[in-house]
Amino acid sequence: MKNLFKQFVALAFLSVMAFGSASAQTFPERTVRIVVPYPPGGFNDTLARVSAEKLTKMWNQPVVVENKPGGNTTVGNSFVAKSAPDGYTILITPLPFSALPGLYGAQLPYDALKDFTPLVWAGSTQNALVVRNELPVNTVQELLGYAKKNPGKLNYGSTGSGSSNHLSMELLMRMTGVKLTHIPYKGSAPATMAMIGGEIDALFDNVPNVLPHIKAGKMKVIAVSSQQRSHLLPAVPTVAESGVSGYDVTVWFGMQLPAGTPTAIVDRLNRDIVQLLKEADVIKRFRDQGVEVVASSPADFSRLVQREVLKWTQLIRDANIRIE
Count of CB atoms within 10 A of residue 234's CB? Predict the structure, then answer.
């Protein structure tokens, strides 16, 4: 009887594996949607639309982009978490995804690590640390020194609680003991305009967002956030090079699927997306926006997401960061 049961379990397992393999060979057989948890515009949208265009041609099946903003990206994220795990719904997932468990705790309507299947780490960029022209600092150490000598005087902007630019400054303050007042804005454009207008003293933002203003002399750039310099600002040092050892904020962009998606489908999607990301025109288009293609395996992206969730959850709790 036991042997019969074991044979049944083995046959059932083989049947599931065979079905998954067959499904992957014929996938996709209908429209695939890529969900962007932000409004149109910005690199998250670019990643989705470039991928949709390339995959539509590759598969001869429509791939559509659906923007589902709201709730600090939780609307779009929740939609995908509750979607069928069949490979037909893909979520664009950037760095702020990893901050939400710390910001919302038990109120988050999904489990960031259990309700999704990481698919691919698509690319990475840096944030640039800029200051207003009138501020008498030109380096990270001068900024830190000025903030310590003038407690409560300096403020900084962001695109909202949990955004990569918000977390970049919070990490810098945590590692150095300085304190600047947070002023959140609804997007990069109003934050950079606030910098130009003298409303804020400092700002971390994606390099491409502030590069035109830097070149126009409307603000000063003193560092970039990741451990590697930006190819768009090769003369600008990293924060770590500027004396804050160990500082690193890599602004990453990836894609995920609902948890439970068959491995064969995950592997098929990863293979095809990696292929399109490595095409010369895609690499150039992304580099022009300051983003370097990574095109990782699902396992590598899974490890990144787990590390980032732990990192930012700890920082958010230690700094007592709240939704503003």
Answer: 7
Asked if 215 contacts 208 with a C-beta cutoff of 8 angstroms, the reply is no
Q: Which domains does the chain have, with CATH numbers?
A: 32-124+250-318 (3.40.190.150), 127-224 (3.40.190.10)
Q: Give the per-residue pLDDT at 91.
A: 98
The whole model's pTM is what?
A: 0.88
Task: Give Cα separations from 35 to 79, 98, 171, 277 (angstroms).
Answer: 9, 17, 29, 18
Q: Pairing between strand 251-258 and 116-125?
A: antiparallel
Segment 238-260, tens digit of pLDDT: 999 999 999 999 999 999 999 99
Residues with Cβ within 8 Å of residue 128, at least 6 apart in sequence: 204, 205, 206, 207, 210, 211, 214, 221, 223, 224, 225, 230, 233, 236
What contacts 24+ positions apart, CB below 8 Å, involve 294-299?
294/121, 294/122, 294/123, 294/124, 294/252, 295/120, 295/121, 295/122, 295/123, 296/120, 296/121, 296/254, 297/120, 297/270, 298/117, 298/118, 298/119, 298/120, 298/266, 298/267, 298/270
